[in-house]
Specification:
11 helices; Spore Coat Polysaccharide Biosynthesis Protein SpsA, Chain A; alpha/beta; 9-stranded mixed sheet
Length: 337
């Protein structure tokens, strides 16, 4: 099987926060492909990772650091022209990364690219199951405003897409400066990437995502005291407006209303219901946002054989390599327990 070598072009960043079990699996996965990309580990777990780190760059952070700050500091160290973020319990497939990089190199008006994603989980710690398989949609409007509002109205996660590094650095710097928690932070970063350029989604296996309500990386609910308040939303919206006004050369009428209406479409109900005065995070909004970020609200299990039959021979090899590694590490985890 052909394995692309992207060491001079692409850095994959992972951000462990609660331990290193999945990080070991993550590193072994890329070792099986002879480490075709640069790996950058931004670790805010309580304990330092002490395994062999010859094949990657490793930086230790305080456990209390904000996710956005950790990303911002880590991204400043990247020298490759392209970068992608991947949770340590997920996998980005080298052939999919190669297709994304090749496309971005050939199309300067695109800021990010990604392929199709499938999610998996281990049933009873023994049986590998496949959840949804999803293909996103390309957003190729010439207008930054059209791209951004279309993305918000029909949101699809771009967290792990291959980005131009300068775009990825900038959007997470803005997320750090203009949001207070990961709920709006990831959303703002994703929207700003669409204001920076077009999005290409291609029909090739790109990402395998572990389905879990509690990911090993930092998630939007890692701070239960955080609030999505009207003030938080207004700061988020102001940042988005400023970028769109620059892209549109200051000639956009009624921009506040356009963003509000798109946000209501994203949330599925009027904004006023979410921003009641002096209230903590309202449970329906919290659940809605979580579903939007996860994009796998309902588990619909498929036999892996059924899923495999939908894949090309090359994609099937990639899938089976992930399945084998997940099963082996699941057995190791059971033995440790």
């Amino acid at each position: 099987m052909f394995v692309p070598y992207l060491i001079d072009k692409l850095t994959v960043i992972t951000t462990p926060h609660y331990g290193h079990f999945y990080l070991k699996r993550f590193l072994l996965y890329y070792q099986q492909y002879n480490n075709p990309v640069k790996l950058l580990i931004l670790d805010s777990s309580p304990e330092e990772f002490t395994d062999n780190l010859e094949t990657c760059d490793y930086f230790k952070f305080d456990h209390r650091i904000r996710f956005e700050e950790k990303l911002y500091l880590g991204l400043s160290r990247i020298e490759t022209p392209y970068a992608a973020i991947c949770s340590d319990d997920d996998f980005l497939i080298p052939a999919g990364l190669q297709e994304a990089v090749a496309f971005l190199e050939a199309n300067s008006d695109y800021a990010l690219a990604q392929g199709k994603t499938f999610s998996f989980y281990m049933r009873n710690g023994r049986q590998f199951r496949v959840c949804h398989s999803q293909v996103g949609h390309s957003i190729e409007d010439d207008s930054a405003l059209s791209r951004t509002l279309r993305h918000l109205r029909d949101y699809y996660v771009t967290f792990s897409a291959v980005h131009r590094t300068n775009v990825l650095k900038y959007i997470w710097e803005e997320a750090l400066s203009n949001t207070y928690d990961y709920r709006l932070g990831e959303l703002l970063a994703s929207l700003l990437s669409l204001s920076a350029g077009k999005l290409k989604s291609f029909d090739r296996l790109f990402c395998a995502r572990r389905y879990s309500h509690t990911s090993t990386g930092q998630t939007m609910d890692n701070n239960p005291k955080a609030r999505v308040t009207r003030n938080n939303y207004e700061r988020f919206k102001l940042c988005l407006k400023e970028h769109l006004l620059v892209k549109g050369k200051g000639q956009m009428d009624n921009l506040d209303n356009l963003i509000d209406r798109a946000m209501e479409y994203y949330l599925g109900r009027p904004l006023w219901r979410y921003f009641l005065s002096n209230m903590p995070v309202i449970p329906p909004m919290f659940r809605k946002l979580k579903r939007r970020f996860m994009r796998f609200p309902e588990i619909v299990s498929e036999d892996t054989e059924e899923f495999e039959n939908k894949l090309s021979p090359e994609e099937k090899n990639d899938f089976l390599a992930i399945k084998k590694l997940v099963e082996e590490y699941s057995r190791m985890n059971q033995c440790q327990d």
